From TrEMBL:
This is Carboxypeptidase regulatory-like domain-containing protein.
Length: 142
């Protein structure tokens, strides 16, 4: 075998192993993101915008998505930090006071403003359909 034949044979083996290794890795990307849809809305409590609430959409199967209401009560669901949306299908929705975990006097004084029927014992449901979804929640404190 000449030097050039040996190089050609070695090159073919390298190409084969690179191709085989690449195809083996293609299935190792982790779980795929399910089909998502954009979900936005407004949360009111006793007819007024409800800021600083955590809105959690919990599907029958799979990962929940969360959003936090702004000063106007508006929220947008996030499936992952950099991936907006919620999975398609039926969800139990839990809305609770959003508490930043720190030792500030504000955090220590924070208390749940939302009745249990909207969070721990939630009666809220929503169905996420393909395309943009606007889902508003009108909560009552009594």
């Amino acid at each position: 075998m000449t030097m050039s034949e040996a190089r050609g044979s070695r090159w073919k083996r390298v190409c084969f192993f690179v191709a085989a290794f690449s195809s083996a890795l293609s299935g190792c990307g982790g779980p795929e993101t399910p089909e998502l849809a954009d979900v936005t809305g407004v949360v009111t409590l006793d007819g007024r915008p409800a800021p600083d609430l955590l809105v959690s959409f919990n599907p029958e199967k799979g990962r929940a998505s969360d959003g936090v209401t702004d000063k106007d009560g508006k929220y947008r669901q996030q499936y992952l930090f950099d991936t907006p949306g919620a999975t398609l299908g039926k969800h139990v929705v839990k809305i609770t006071t959003y508490i930043v975990e720190d030792d500030s006097p504000e955090a220590l004084k924070a208390r749940e403003r939302v009745p249990q029927r909207y969070n721990r014992k939630s009666e809220l449901t929503a169905e996420v359909k393909p395309g943009p979804n606007v889902i508003n929640f009108e909560l009552k404190s009594k």
